[in-house]
Structure formats: C-alpha cells, structure tokens
Specification:
heterodimer, A: mainly alpha, 2 domains, B: Rossmann fold, six-stranded mixed sheet, 9 helices
Chain lengths: ~280, ~250
C-alpha cells in the first residue's frame, strides 16, 4: 500500500516534469494516483475503526484467559530461541567492531560499558522488535488471513463468539506482554556473548565485565528502553491482526496479507522507535 | 415432519441487499413456520447464501425487516445479536471447521463458550453429537485429515451443539458425490425429526430438497419466483422453472 503510493507519486512527478506526456496518459496516471491516495487514507480509516472495535471488546468480560496463555506461549516462548540468537550475534558483533575503534582512542576499558549500554538502550529492543515483527507478524497475518478466506472467522461470529475478542485481543495483549520479556532475553544473551567475545581476546571475569559495564548506567537507562518494546508489541499485534482480518481473495490474498503484515509492522516499529527514543530523552534526560 | 403450528419462526419482509450496483435481493418476502424446513433454490449468484448471512447477522441488509422468533434483528449488534445467534445453528458451505482444533474440539467450541457444562459433560455431549452424525470415532482427527463430506457432518454437529431453534444450512450437499450427498440429505431428515427444529436449506440438490424440505422457494433476480411444494414446482409453467428442472434432471 505504502510502496504503491510512493511509486504512483514518483511516476506522477516524473510525468509532470516531462513535457511529452499526452493528455490521455496524464488522465490514466491521475486516476492511478487518486486511487492510491484514496486507498492510503482508507487504510488508516479502516485501521482506526479496527482499533475502536478492539478497544470496545478487549477489556470487558468474559476473559479469554486460556487463549491468551496459548498466544503468550506461541508468541513468547517460541520466539525466545530466535530472539536470544539474534541478541547474541549482536553482542558478538558489537564487541568485535568496537574493540578496535576504542583501542585507537585508548579507551579500551570502556568496552564493557559500550556493549552493555548499546544493547540495553537500543540494539536489544530494536532487534527484538524486528525479529518478532518478522516471525510473529507473518504467523498472525497468515493464520488470521487463512481463517478469513475459509470462513472460519464468520463461523466464529455465527457461533456468537466475537473474533475481535477471541482472536485479536488475545494476540495483541500477548504481543504487548511478551515483547519486554523477550527484550530482556535478547539483552542478556547479547551482553553474555559480548563478554565471551571480549574475554576470548582479552580474558576478563564476567563479574568484572558486568560491574565495569554497568557503573555509569542508571535504572532509568534500562527501564524505559525495555518497556518501550511493549509499544512495539502493540504495533506488531494490531498491524498483523488488522492485515489478517481484512484478507480478501483466497490464497493469493493470504500471501499478500502475510507480506504486508511483516513489512508494515517492521516499518512501524522502526518509525515508532524514532518517536519513542525522543520521548524517552524528553522524560528521562 | 410438517410444521407444528403457524407461528412464524422467521419472518422476512421487503428485504433488499446490494453490492455496489449489483442488486442481490430486492423486496424479498418469506415466512418460515416453527418446525418447518424450507429449501431455497436458484441459480448461483441469486442471493441464496447472502440471504442466510443476513439471517445470522454476518451482513446487514440495505432495507427491510428480519424477525426471528418475533424479534427484529436487522438493527442489532454486539451482545443482543449474539443472544439471537445462540438460537441459530449455521452450516457453512465448506464446513468452516477451525483447522487448529480437532474434530471433537470443534464441536465443543460453542459449548465451551456458551454453557456452564463441566469438561466431562461437554466432552460427552460433543461425542454424542458426533455419533449422531456418524463421526463418533473421528473426534481426535484434525479437519484436514477428514473428507469434505465428513467435514460437513462435523459442521452439522457443531451447528446443533447449542440445541438451536433454527438451523441454516448453506449448500450442505455441494461438492459431494451422489452417495455422500444422499447420506447427508438423509442425515438432515433424521436430525429434523429428532430435534424438531426449523430449518432453511440453500441447495442446488433438487432431489435432496424433495426429501428433506416441506416447502421449496425458488429465487431469481433477488425475488421469489416460486414458493410451494415439489409437486407444484414440477407443474409450474414459468420458463425459468421449467429450464431449471430440465437442467437439474
């Protein structure tokens, strides 16, 4: 949707700049741009209505405790190995990359601080957000999309069960709850592997590494970046469920929903990160 | 198997529904008495399935009235609509079984949501329902492991789980071989006699409808073209009906 819009606008710009465009070509292009722009705003309108419907059912009984726990397991525990691995790789890369740089400036003793600070403040949360938006976003988009095209969601509604409550609210809440916990796992494995990588080059005890690394770090450096991932969870859950629930057009439609769930949730996580980092700087200077 | 009394379980008046410029139902009227089984026939795309979806509130009509057990449902939403839905069983054309749940869990699903039965009672009831549709030994299977006919049987068991007053069946025999289609038709007749429920069946299976329906309704261009018995349908001189019967033979 966003890419189509950008493409249409770029083409429109190119045509407008060119002098050889025929009126009929401009008319076709104008219609294409109008369709894309309308679609772009319609998407936001539908998303707003989706969020409103979700908000109306999410916090009223009956509670879907069993389904929520099932989703927390599917989203949390099953993402854990992937998130931990990505965190570990980040820790190793950070250690390898910064060691030489810091050595050049005679600041090698700052290496534990740089690794821990980078991972806790930014790398851990963002890596977790992107990994979960890929794995979970695709899963939710495909699952809800295929349920939609095979009338399973209609069957649920016909059984007097609100799919927004049973399917959407549980997945969104599970994402919100699990993202900070997964971030802790990514932080831990990143710091641990950063230490392993560091200690292979220059032996240092884990305790010393940790003490040196956390000396200048306050609790406010750790808590807001970890908790901001709950917002990533909200974004991933809502965008993926929204794309899944509006699936149309059989298996091809399911493919489109899955792709758009991953692309849009990843994009929104990155954009949200910009805003959240600035907000954290404002409130926790 | 005839109607038990003349009270209209379903009363539809001047119902209209369009999708863009395509008019699917235009001023559609129909009453279904308590205990009656009405088969809705017609060409594909004449609004038969849409009619069932309007009756369960999955889609909203453009205008007109739908009363179920005397209660107007067209303006309902949320909890009041769900209260009506609990009285209605719906069999979807492709079964629409939840593919992440087993056959047994599919039948248990509405019982789990809307009854206070214990786990053991729920399991027992679901097993009894599955046995009543000849699927008693397949409760542990996943929907993907059973045939299309079996999926429809399970869908039927799930539709009957809450003991509905009204059952809506969307092409219960579509896509099945003649023998399985006849079995499903026979099953519908048996369940009809056992549960004494009101049913509306959208079907292309004229021969099946002859057996399980009290009344036939033929739709064309969003309106009722014929309403009455199978014998009356055969005597109709309407060119569309004559052609339909000829092609169905």
């Amino acid at each position: 949707m966003l890419t189509n819009l950008s493409f249409a606008l770029i083409l429109a710009g190119a045509f407008a700049a060119g002098s050889r465009a025929r009126p009929d070509q401009l008319s076709v292009l104008g219609n294409a741009v109008r369709t894309e722009v309308t679609g772009f705003f319609a998407w936001f309108g539908e998303l707003a209505m989706f969020c409103w419907r979700l908000a109306r059912v999410a916090f009223v009984p009956p509670w879907e405790g069993r389904e929520l726990v099932r989703q927390m397991d599917a989203i949390g525990s099953k993402s854990l190995p992937l998130v931990a691995l990505a965190g570990a790789a980040t820790g190793v890369v950070l250690s390898l990359q910064t060691r030489d740089t810091l050595a050049r400036f005679g600041a090698k003793s700052m290496l534990p601080t740089v690794i821990i600070y980078s991972i806790v403040k930014e790398s851990g949360p963002v890596i977790t957000g992107l990994i979960v938006s890929g794995r979970v976003g695709a899963g939710i988009g495909a699952e809800l999309g295929s349920m939609k095209v095979t009338e399973q969601i209609d069957a649920m509604e016909a059984s007097a069960v609100d799919p927004y409550k049973y399917l959407v609210a549980t997945r969104v809440l599970a994402c919100v709850a699990m993202l900070p916990l997964l971030t802790l796992a990514a932080d831990f494995s990143g710091i641990f592997m950063g230490w392993i990588s560091n200690t292979l080059a220059e032996p240092i005890s884990l305790r010393l590494f940790f003490d040196a690394g956390t000396k200048g770090i306050a609790f406010s450096d750790f808590l807001p970046p970890t908790l901001k991932t709950a917002v990533y969870g909200l974004i991933i859950g809502i965008v993926s469920c929204f794309q899944g629930m509006r699936t149309q057009g059989g298996t091809e439609g399911v493919g489109r929903s899955t792709t758009s769930a991953v692309v849009l949730s990843s994009l929104c996580v990155i954009l949200a990160d910009v805003v959240l980092v600035r907000l954290i700087q404002v409130f926790y200077p | 198997m005839g109607p038990e009394n003349n009270q209209a379980e379903v009363a539809i008046e001047r119902l209209s529904k369009s999708f863009g410029s395509q008019k699917v139902l235009t001023g559609f009227n129909l009453n279904v008495a308590h205990g009656e089984t009405v088969a809705v026939l017609g060409r594909s795309g004449t609004g038969k399935s849409v009619l069932l979806r309007l009756l369960i509130g999955l889609q909203k009509p453009d205008s007109g009235s739908i009363r179920i057990q005397g209660q107007e449902i067209t303006g309902l939403d949320g909890k009041p609509l769900n209260e009506i839905r609990k009285k209605i069983g719906f069999l979807f054309q492709e079964g629409a079984l939840y593919d992440s749940l087993t056959v047994q869990q599919n039948v248990e699903f509405p019982l789990d949501r809307h009854t206070t039965l214990s786990d053991a009672e729920r399991e027992s009831k679901a097993r009894a329902l599955l046995e009543s549709v000849g699927m008693g030994h397949d409760g542990d299977k996943m929907p993907s492991e059973i045939s299309g006919g079996m999926q429809k049987r399970v869908g039927l068991a799930r539709a009957l789980a809450l003991g509905p007053a009204l059952v809506l069946l969307d092409e219960p025999t579509a896509g099945l071989d003649p023998i399985t289609a006849a079995e499903i038709g026979e099953l519908i007749s048996q369940l009809q006699e056992k549960h004494k429920m009101t049913s509306m069946v959208v079907t292309h299976d004229l021969h099946g409808a002859k057996h399980f329906a009290n009344r036939l309704v033929m739709l064309d261009c969003g309106k009722v073209l014929y309403e009455g018995s199978f014998e009356g349908l055969q005597k109709s001189s309407d060119p569309f009906v004559v052609q339909y019967l000829k092609d169905a033979a």
